[in-house]
Amino acid sequence: MSIMLKGFDRGAVNISHSYHQGIEAASEVDLWNSILFKARDGQSGDQLSLEQSYTLNDFHFDRDPVYHNNRIGGIPIHVYQAELLYQGPHGFFAGVNLKWNITSYPVDHANTLFVDPYALLGFRVGFDVSKQISVFFDARNLTGTRYPSSVDPIPDARTVDGPIEVFHPGDGRSFYGGLSDTF
Fold it and tell me: Distance of CA 163 to CAs 6, 37, 41, 150, 167, Å?
C-alpha cells in the first residue's frame, strides 16, 4: 500500500492489519429476440440485451493505531455499470449505457474528505462491417456531470497545507468515433 504524508508519497508502507474483500458480479441477459426482424434461413433476427456489472469494495483498516477501522482512501465502494443494447441482424447496433458510483467514498485514510456519488449516461451507435471490424460513434457523459475519474489517496486531508490537489477530473461531455477491430 502507498501512504502519503502531507500530500507527499512515502512509497509502499506495510500496515499491520487490513481487510480487502468485495464482490464482483456481472450478467448479460437477452431481453427480446426477433423484435423487428425474424430469424430466417440460418440468420439470426435482431435482439435487445442488457449487460450489467456491480462491484463492492470493502477495503478498510483493522485496529490500526492511527486510522482505526477507517476505510482505505481512494477506493470506490459501490460501482454499477449497465448497457441496454439493440443489435440488428445486418450489423447495426445502438444502445444507452450508465456508469454509477452509488455512494460517496473517502479520499483520505482519516476519512475526512469524500468523493460525491455520481452517474454518467452515454450512448453508442455503430455498424459491424465484418466479424472483425466495426465503425462506431460513442457519446459519453451526456449530462455533463463533474466527477473525478480517479483520486490520489492521502493520509489526512486536514493536515495538508494549501490546496488539496488529489482529484483527477473526469472527461466532460465528449464524443468519439472510429473503427475497432477484434484481431
Answer: 11, 58, 65, 17, 11
Most distant CA pair in the chain, distance: 70
Are 15 and 168 contacting, i.e. CB atoms less than 8 angstroms apart? Answer: no
Domain extent listing, the chain: 2-181
Grid coordinates given for 37: 426482424
Query: pLDDT category, 1, cuts 50, 70, 90?
Result: very low
pTM, to two decimals: 0.85
Give me the residue label for grid cell 465503425.
135
Q: Which helix (H) or strand (E) holds 56?
A: strand 47-61
pLDDT digits (tens, 9 = 90+) for 48-60: 999 999 999 999 9
170 vs 172: CA distance, rounded Å: 6
HSE-CB at 134 with a 13 A cutoff on CA atoms is 20
